[in-house]
Amino acid sequence: MIRDDIKAALVTAMKARDAETTNAIRLIQAAVKNRDIELRGNANPPEDNVLVSEVLQKMVKQRRESIEMYDKGGRAELADAERAEVAVIERFLPQMMSEAETVVAIESIKAEIGASGVKDMGRVMAELKARHAGTLDMSKASGLVKAALA
Length: 150
Fold this sequence. Notes:
Elements: H1 2-15, H2 19-38, H3 48-72, H4 76-90, H5 99-113, H6 121-132, H7 138-149
Helix pairs in contact: 1-2, 2-3, 2-4, 3-4, 5-6, 5-7, 6-7
């Protein structure tokens, strides 16, 4: 489980006195805990690895946006700090599906549910998320689904 890998990495980083990695992993744990709290009382919580993967993907996306802004603003030191956090976070993300694998999955779902046009995009996206939530970048998949249904 990803959660166990994160805990083990924290212990390793603390023993190695690696402050940057320790801080980044603590940020990950805090974000996962916040997500757990948000989902309390939810009758249908997602599978644990899917939940943690979603949190990690969101964290990477936020940091990449920050890196872009820092680079535009000439704040190289802050951009480098964000890049270091992204590197730590990405260690825990499962292998993401390639674009070719995503297209194959979309075509399979499209055939199964009989999707024929852009009006079926919501159904295809919902099924895609249900099947591949932890291993798929949904923002990239959205464009591929739209292209496949157009």
